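Researcher: Good morning. I'm working through a list of sequences from a screen, and I'd like to move beyond sequence-only analysis. For each chain I'm collecting a predicted structure so we can compare shapes side by side. This is the next one on the list. No need for commentary yet; just the structure.
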Amino acid sequence: MARILVSMPDKFLESIDKLADIEQRSRSELVREALRSYIKKSNAASPKQAADNAKILESLLD
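Model: Good morning. Structure tokens for this chain:
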């Protein structure tokens, strides 16, 4: 399995870690699941919807 390096705000990472702890999963598994969901939705969505979804994800990182 390949590894990647992703930068994100500390508060966002804290939220991910809290949720992973609550769900008793690893941070990596939680992020993989979120990306699988995003890809599935993007593949089914129109290009405009995919762009809107990208903007929503970006706003979550702010």
